[in-house]
Amino acid sequence: MAELPGDVTWRRSSFGGGGNDCVEVARSRHAFAVRDSKDAAGPRLAFGAAGWSSFGRAVQRDSSRSQVGT
């Protein structure tokens, strides 16, 4: 499992509209992580490079499916 050091910088999506209903992403030298902006101390998903790429492709596929017919 990918490890993330405690001193990373978390970034919010620009698509969040400035609210608190966002995911935040952090990157270290060897890992990427995602957390819920409403629960910064809560659980995090951490990925190595290959896992991060797979996660991104899955999110893109899901996003394109939800926009069909809009």
Query: Could you tell me the mean pLDDT?
Result: 81
The first-to-last residue Cα distance is: 38 Å
Radius of gyration: 13 Å
The number of distinct structural domains comes to 1
Principal-axis shape equals flat
- How many β-strands, per DSSP? 4
Describe the overall structure.
- The chain has 70 residues and is α+β, with helices and mostly antiparallel strands.
- The protein has one domain.
- The protein has one helix at 49-66; strands spanning 10-12, 23-27, 32-36, 44-47.
- It has a 4-stranded antiparallel sheet.
- A hairpin with a 7-residue loop joins β3 and β4 (44-47).
- The mean pLDDT is 81.
List the helices and strands and how they pair.
Blueprint (H helix, E strand, L loop, with lengths): L9 E3 L10 E5 L4 E5 L7 E4 L1 H18 L4
Antiparallel strand pairs: 1-2, 2-3, 3-4
Nutshell version of this structure?
The chain has 70 residues and is α+β, with helices and mostly antiparallel strands. It contains one helix and four strands; from the N terminus they run ββββα. The chain has one domain (10-66).
Q: Which key phrases capture this entry?
A:
70 residues; alpha+beta; four-stranded antiparallel β-sheet; 1 helix; 4 strands
